Amino acid sequence: MKRIVFLTGAGISAESGITTFRDSGGLWEQYPVMQVASIQGYEADPELVIRFYNERRRQLHDVRPNEAHRLVAELEQHYDVTVVTQNVDDLHERAGSSHIIHLHGELMKATSTLSPNDPSQLVTLTPEQPDIHIGDRARDGSQLRPFIVWFGEPVPMIEPAAEAVQQADILVVVGTSLNVYPAAGLIHYASARCSTYLIDPAPAHLDPSMRVHVIQKTASEGMKELCQLLG
Ligand code: APR
User: Fold this and answer.
1) Cα separation, 64 vs 169, whole angstroms
2) Contact, 13 vs 68, CB < 8 A?
3) Closest ligand 1 atom to the C-alpha of 8?
């Protein structure tokens, strides 16, 4: 089977009702990003940061995967699909995608403050138990924290993501402003034989030498066009 890799960002979840980060009215206009999404912010005020992610996690109950998530999942019938997402929501999972690499963590998981990337410390949160509280402890006794990769922290999943892109026959970038590294740098790992598509109503500017097929549409409309192009 041909290998197809999706590199997705907040834009693929926009039509599910989850605000993006950098569009007008986006999340970073309402909250100072370094206060709620950086390791320094967490160390300075863990309670504020824990509360910010509790709020975002609760929002997840009210949203559903959209057509774009569903079409990505359906392509597994015809391709070896890997989803590399910057999103921390679980909408790709809920749409049925089975091979997902979360570069920036997962909202529905919590981990140890001492060893955040130790898999044995991971705890899955549920709609019944969605919140983390100050005083909740991870297995190693340290404060339980959101399993999110904050600015200033390493991105442990970047290696497997880069390998997936290197091996891809098709790379589809959906709904990301390509502002944040190392995620944005993944597009440079595509081989010369890889066909690259970019789906976004306001696509990031890419060097013409990159031969990217731009589909200037929303994720759901753009995915429909992509599926027609792929035949
Ligand atoms: N369909 C497709 N794309 C859309 C839609 C839509 N309906 N609406 C908006 N977009 C596009 C925007 O044009 C923009 O290019 O989605 C992109 C959203 O960009 P950002 O808000 O910067 O989100 P993202 O690229 O995922 O941010 C990357 O930054 O703050 C960090 O960790 C956070 O993972 C996030 C990372």
Assistant:
1) 30
2) no
3) 26
Among protein residues, the one whose CA lies closest to atom 4 of ligand 1: 11
Measuring CA to CA, how many Å separate 161 from each of 8, 23, 33, 89, 105?
A: 12, 25, 25, 18, 13
| Per-residue confidence band for 138, with pLDDT thresholds at 50, 70 and 90 | very high
Determine whether 104 is an active site residue. yes
Phi and psi, residue 2, nearest 5°: -70, 145
Residue 203 in tokens: 């696509």
DSSP per-residue letters across 131-156: ---TT-B-TTSSBEEEEE--BTS--T
d(CA 121, CA 115): 8
Distance CA 177, CA 24 (A): 13
* 100-103-106-110 Cα dihedral, nearest 10 degrees: 130
Tell the residue number behind the tokens 């391709």, with chain if given.
79
Does the predicted TM-score (pTM) go above 0.85?
A: yes
Ligand 1 is surrounded, with C-beta below 6 A, by 9-11, 14-15, 20-23, 26, 86, 104, 175-177, 179-180, 200-202, 204, 218-219
Q: Give the whole-angstrom CA distance, residue 161 versus residue 6.
A: 10
**Planar angle of CA 14, 17, 23, nearest 5 degrees:** 45
Show the CA angle centred on residue 202, arms to residues 37 and 163, nearest 5°.
Answer: 60
Both tokens of residue 221?
Answer: 């409309």
Read off the pLDDT of residues 156-188 as tens digits, 9 standing for 90 and up. 999 999 999 999 999 999 999 999 999 999 999
Q: How far is the CA of 136 from the centre of ligand 1 (A)?
A: 32
